[in-house]
Design goal:
With 941 residues, this protein is of the alpha/beta class. Helix content is 49%, strand content 12%.
């Protein structure tokens, strides 16, 4: 109260208020109806003081307020502000927000699809656009005062993360950087790096969520709290979080449930077990999706987002809710939904609506239910987002991509499972992913609290779940790697020496250098341990280190011989596979598909299947077979540990189609009739090579003759010697790691520069004409695209044929399918695609020679021809129905790949030679051919 202040205190307070009123922050705060949080005020004050800031705070906490203050400062000072985001949808959303506040004349938008008012003082853009501007030395950078990097934690993204570091390193020193990140556990480390490369940077970390989050597990009819909390003052003070004992009991009960595989117990006991399990199941089951939504609706916990780590699962969930008769909207809301949907989709041709599943989608929306995933048409996703924010859609089933930025908070978030497919295997979600997903729960200014609900699944460990929920942060790891395009751009601007120095300032190298300190300490500890072990193995009869070496040599020789024997057996098996012909009936000796099989295709010769060096080698043919169980599978050498030979021959009908269940059933039946009675001969084991090996005999003789062999404490000494050897080996590995981590980025850059020099893209510090062309090509296969231009591979192609070829530079199939070759356009396009693969093979061999390894995220993957036919058809003006049916691809994926092809075609049009070439002209025509229908009217996403 002011009456409690002394005159001096009142005077000081008045001075402080006056000083605050004189800042740019005071009028900015008045723009908002709510007061700013302490972390927001601290970050804004640091910005106004001329410092860069890194703000790390939970999802939904209002980090973007700091970015908007940077916009405000730029306008106040008459300077520019670029607001960068990782995805186009976020750029579109932020653009709309800023236009609403400052007017369309002051705000621009630059993404791969849109260019709106690019000379405005505020420009929202994707991070890649800013990177390209920096390399091109764009005039738009003139007068730039602030850059906001929203979702800066994207720099740990394996595929795109390098772009963030490129921007941070190359921005002019005069630009103040505002970095906004999710809560990461090493914010101080990232801040230290920013301090090094950008100057004075304030790190502001906020751990508190604006809306408290309650964690639950839904099992059967009961919703369990995950934690049993003991708090003071109703949870406002400190809390000690223990896992709910009821949940722990539930997990223990399930573990002791009857196991049907246990045949050892008596019949009466098994019956009792079954009865007990029936009673338990009456309490423990995983509720169905409609049941979960109805339950949450009854408890006032909608709107909700259910995360399902599968697109098909999201669509199936919507259908299940429709079949269950679920309705979450009243008549007034239904009419409002239809009105909004019809307005937003008015541009879609009527003939395309049925192909896109419009009417089923609309029915679900009218009931307040929707799916949200990357396979959906961007327009459909945007409508779902708008309706959800307006409260007209109350249940959304989404893949995890929804958690990556779109402003779509809910009251409740549901996780069906804690396991997801990561592209290689089913893996547990990480604490960081759990935090990101559940961060959507609780709408600021609307909800008093948010709720995260995990559905009970068999084998659920409440302790593990509590660990996910309790670990609220995850570390930021750099994914920065030099690329060919980056190398020529850097050398062109700075020369080789300065470029090398710049790359050594990357966050990747910063983290590598820091990790070396800890490794060096471990080496010192190991060396002290080695001294102690050396004393322990000292023997009074002789040199025990020498004796231990003889024992190791003997063991290593025996292991080598065993390995050679295994390799010889594999070679014999591979040789036998090479003799197989279509129609041979074989017996697969082991593996998932062991048993009778018919060879449909003997496979490919020994060697590499594709360009993923370090990932996929094999040492023999991979026959495509039909099993007796009607499955068509491509087998590998691991399925044949012993040689195989044809048991019988069976004619394969010309009409046989491996995709047809009926064809498979008929041929499998013929296979069983023809050879089902044949028993394969058992393979005879051969005499061990070790029995006749002279080296082994010599080592055994020397071992017995050694003085230490007769020591009474020989085995004790041997244990110390083994520990010494293991620790010495570990120490040597650590020393190699230290050597390997020092200057790693610069060494990779040197190898890339050497390869580019070999191909005449660089000559010392000079960038050749070929190099200047490469500098305009961004993307994973930048060097392949440049080589295709240099070798005139695409000359004389029609626009549709060029679109088909360029699709191979961007497309990557979601799942590898090596059983069926992709359909390709005929004629010139097919020849050009074949030439592209040959050029890639030459580059792949060159990368191997220069030790450029894709396993480290550097180099050119093999072009994927899986989208070539769809791109060709669409550019040839075929209907959406025909293209999608033949491509067997969701509309959203089709649109996204078309946009990426359009983006690269634009780069090729800019990079292609102007004289004696049709490529630039046809690339522009191909863009026009692709940019129609669903692709054109989805250009906002």
């Amino acid at each position: 109260m002011t009456e409690d202040l002394t005159p001096a205190q009142a005077y000081a307070a008045a001075l402080r208020r006056n000083a605050e009123q004189a800042t740019a922050l005071a009028p900015f705060r008045e723009m908002y109806e709510f007061g700013l949080d302490p972390f927001q005020i601290e970050a804004c004050q640091a910005l106004e003081a001329g410092k860069g800031v890194l703000v790390a705070a939970p999802t939904g906490s209002g980090k973007t307020i700091v970015g908007e203050f940077a916009v405000h400062l730029a306008l106040t000072q008459g300077r520019k502000c670029f607001y960068t985001t990782p995805i186009k949808a976020l750029s579109n959303q932020k653009y709309a927000d800023l236009v609403k506040r400052y007017g369309a004349d002051k705000v621009g938008l630059l993404t791969g699809d849109n260019s709106v008012n690019g000379d405005a003082p505020i420009v929202v853009m994707t991070t890649e656009v800013l990177r390209n501007m920096l390399y091109a030395g764009s005039q738009a950078l003139s007068g730039l005062g602030y850059v906001v990097m929203d979702e800066v934690h994207y720099l740990s993204d394996r595929f795109r993360g390098a772009v963030w570091e490129e921007v941070i390193i190359h921005l002019p020193e005069s630009v103040t950087l505002v970095s906004l990140s999710a809560t990461v556990s090493n914010a101080e480390e990232f801040g230290d790096w920013l301090d090094t490369v950008r100057g004075d940077t304030e790190v502001i970390v906020s751990e508190s969520r604006p809306v408290p989050l309650w964690q639950h597990v839904l099992a059967g009819r009961r919703m369990y709290d995950l934690f049993e909390e003991e708090t003071d003052h109703g949870g406002r003070g400190s809390a000690r979080r223990e896992v709910n004992p009821d949940l722990m009991r539930l997990a223990r009960t399930e573990k002791t449930a009857y196991n049907p595989r246990d045949r050892r117990r008596g019949k009466m006991v098994r019956e009792a077990d079954r009865e007990r399990e029936r009673r338990q199941r009456s309490r423990i089951w995983t509720p169905g999706r409609p049941e979960v939504i109805e339950r949450l609706d009854a408890e006032g916990l909608l709107p909700a987002i259910t995360f399902i780590f599968s697109r098909a699962g999201c669509e199936a969930a919507v259908q299940q809710c429709l079949y269950a008769g679920l309705r979450l909207n009243d008549d007034e809301a239904r009419l409002r939904v239809r009105e909004i949907v019809e307005e937003r989709t008015a541009a879609i041709p009527t003939e395309d609506l049925h192909v896109l599943g419009y009417y089923e989608w609309l029915e679900a929306l009218e009931r307040g239910i929707a799916a949200h995933h990357a396979g959906m048409l961007p327009t459909f996703k945007e409508v779902v987002e708008e309706l959800f924010v307006r409260g007209l859609v109350k249940a959304v089933f989404a893949t995890e991509t929804l958690a990556l930025g779109i402003n779509m908070p809910a009251r409740t978030v549901i996780l069906e499972k804690l396991v997801k497919w990561n592209g290689e295997q089913h893996a547990d979600i990480t604490p960081g992913e759990y935090t990101q997903l559940t961060g959507r729960a609780g709408r600021r200014g609307i909800d008093v609290e948010g709720h995260a609900v995990v559905l009970w699944q068999r084998g659920l460990d409440p302790g593990h779940l509590a660990g996910l929920a309790g670990t609220r942060t995850y570390p930021l790891r750099s994914s920065f790697r030099p690329s060919y395009n980056m190398a020529v751009n850097l050398v062109d601007q700075f020369g080789r020496h300065r470029s090398r120095e710049l790359l050594e300032t990357s966050f990747a190298q910063f983290q590598a250098d820091r990790s070396v300190v800890g490794i060096s300490r471990q080496v010192q500890k190991n060396e002290e341990g080695l001294e102690g072990y050396r004393e322990g193995m000292t023997c009074h009869l002789g040199d025990f280190e020498e004796y231990a070496r003889l024992r190791r040599d003997l063991k290593d020789r025996e292991t080598d011989l065993a390995r050679q024997g295994a390799a010889q057996r594999r070679a014999q098996a591979a040789s036998s596979l090479e003799k197989l012909k279509p129609g041979d009936v074989i017996h697969v000796p082991t593996g998932k598909f062991a048993g009778l099989a018919l060879v449909l295709d003997p496979g490919i010769p020994a060697g590499r299947t594709n360009g993923h060096r370090g990932f996929e080698h094999h040492d023999g043919p991979r026959p495509l077979v039909l099993t007796a169980e009607r499955q068509v599978k491509r087998l590998a050498s691991i399925d044949f540990p012993v040689p195989v030979e044809a048991l019988e021959r069976l004619r394969i009908p010309k009409s046989f189609n491996p995709r047809s269940p009926q064809s498979r059933r008929d041929l499998a039946s013929a296979l069983r009739s023809k050879a089902g009675h044949i028993n394969p001969e058992r393979h005879q084991r051969q005499r061990s090579a070790a029995a006749d090996d002279r080296e082994i005999a010599r080592l055994r003789t020397e071992l017995r003759a050694h003085p230490c062999h007769g020591c009474d404490e020989r085995e004790d000494h041997a244990r110390w010697a083994e520990r010494y050897h293991r620790l010495q080996r570990d120490t040597q590995q650590l020393e190699r790691r230290i050597e390997g981590r020092t200057n790693t980025i610069a060494r990779t850059f040197d190898r890339i520069v050497a390869l580019l020099t070999e191909l005449d893209y660089l000559r010392g510090n000079e960038v050749t004409e070929n190099g200047k062309r490469l500098a305009r090509l961004y993307g994973e296969l930048d060097l392949l695209a440049s080589e295709c231009l240099r070798d005139r591979v695409w000359e004389g192609l029609t626009p549709a044929e060029l679109a088909a070829c360029v699709s191979a530079l961007v497309f990557e199939a979601r799942q590898a399918d090596d059983a069926v070759a992709p359909k390709l356009p005929t004629g010139n396009a097919k020849a050009a695609l074949g030439e592209m693969v040959r050029i890639w093979g030459r580059l792949d061999a060159l990368e191997e020679e220069f030790k450029i390894n894709q396993a480290e995220g550097v180099g050119q993957r093999e072009p994927d021809l899986g989208f070539a036919w769809a791109a060709y058809q669409w550019a040839s003006d075929k209907s959406l129905d025909e293209v999608l049916r033949e491509a067997e691809m969701p509309a959203g994926d089709f649109v996204r790949w078309c946009k990426q092809v359009i983006d690269v075609l634009g780069q090729i049009a800019a990079a292609a030679p102007r004289e004696n070439s049709t490529v630039a002209k046809n690339a522009r025509k191909a863009v026009d051919s692709l940019l129609r229908g669903v692709v054109a009217y989805s250009s906002v996403g």
